[in-house]
Design a protein that fits this description.
The protein has 315 residues and is of the alpha/beta class. The chain has one domain (4-310): Aldolase class I (TIM Barrel, Alpha-Beta Barrel). Helix content is 40%, strand content 13%. The protein has helices at residues 9-14, 17-26, 49-55, 93-101, 106-114, 139-148, 165-179, 201-210, 228-240, 258-271, 289-310, and strands spanning 31-37, 60-64, 117-122, 152-155, 184-188, 214-218, 244-249, 275-278. It has an 8-stranded parallel barrel with strand order 1-2-3-4-5-6-7-8, surrounded by 9 helices. α3 (49-55) crosses α11, α6 crosses α7 (165-179) and α10 packs across α11 (289-310).
Length: 315
């Protein structure tokens, strides 16, 4: 099995869940995930945030704020819209959304453009929370994630959503029943999300037992009280249940200086992380691109970082 940073475009496009998990295992803690917001204009005009994340070394790209009822990715779906005409240029967005809804290969097209594994956030928000239906973890969106061609889902909570460990656990069970062995399930909290952080390793065990293939925790140094020692204990519990572990930088520190990112990366690797995630809160829905590259360089060196960057479209 090749390591994830050795995979070329055609291999990524053809890979299924079981092989994705195995290529991550084979990479020995050197897998980089970048999360990007796609419902706002991208950092660089004419280049989508997913494409930019891929260009700077991400192996996996998670779409945040993607709405299954309103599928539109700025930087990809708005190409051809003349921004210099002003706000009226956006009048044709609804027609583009309708086209995407009717196109069963829409996400596969986006994956082909980026040449990376694509995932999507689905949030198990509690009852009574006013939240866009197309972004909530429910049966309809789970089936669409599978049918549209995503490689994985991320069950977590954006700030102020009130997502709890209980709603995450319920979400894992619902997702597992629908997705089974066809889509990788990642679940956990990278910050409080309007509630409490998760510190108890047994809670993380329950996520793996319920069906999460990957359990996520905050990277050491990103959440109060989560240091190298605690992260190590949490990851040990996750691994004992047979799941992979992901450490997340999701506290706006993805906009910190490069030396801070390097510290997060090295502590996460020492703790035993299989995947390292960097969030979307740099500027305009993406980490500072050089921080994505710094994370990659810290955990796998320049040789493999440049390999990943250079393999974007090799068939």
């Amino acid at each position: 099995m090749k390591r994830i940073f050795e995979l070329c475009h055609s291999e990524i496009m053809a890979m299924e869940k079981r092989d994705l998990i195995e290529t991550i295992r084979a990479s020995e803690g050197r897998t980089v995930m970048a999360e990007v917001i796609i419902n706002c204009p991208p950092l660089v005009y004419g280049v989508s945030n997913p494409e930019l994340a891929a260009a700077f070394g991400a192996d996996m790209i998670t779409l945040n704020a993607f709405d299954f009822n309103f599928p539109f990715i700025f930087g990809i779906d708005d190409l051809g819209i003349d921004f210099f005409r002003g706000l009226e240029a956006f009048d044709n967005i609804p027609s583009r959304v309708r086209e995407n809804l009717e196109n069963p290969g829409y996400i596969k097209k986006v994956k082909n453009i980026t040449g990376r594994f694509l995932g999507v956030n689905l949030e198990p928000v509690p009852e009574g929370i006013d939240y866009p239906e197309g972004r909530v973890l429910n049966e309809s969106n789970l089936k669409k994630a599978l049918e549209w061609g995503f490689d994985y889902i991320m069950i977590t909570g954006n700030p102020k959503t009130g997502v709890t460990d209980g709603t995450i656990l319920d979400g894992i069970r619902r997702a597992s029943a629908i997705l089974k062995d066809r889509l990788m399930i990642i679940a956990g909290k990278m910050h409080g999300a309007g509630g409490n952080n998760i510190y108890d390793p047994d809670t993380l065990r329950s996520f793996a037992v319920a069906g999460a293939d990957v359990v996520l925790i905050p990277a050491p140094g990103t959440v109060p009280g989560v240091d190298l020692e605690l992260a190590g204990k949490q990851i040990e519990a996750i691994h004992e249940e047979g799941a992979l572990a992901l450490t997340a930088i999701g506290t706006s520190q993805e906009g910190s200086d490069e030396s801070t990112i390097e510290q997060f990366a090295l502590m996460s690797k020492m703790a035993g992380a299989d995947i390292q995630h960097i969030g979307d809160a740099g500027f305009s829905g993406i980490a500072l691109p050089e921080n994505i590259m710094e994370l990659s360089t810290a955990i796998r060196g320049k040789r493999h970082t440049y390999r990943r960057m250079g393999y974007s479209m090799r068939k």
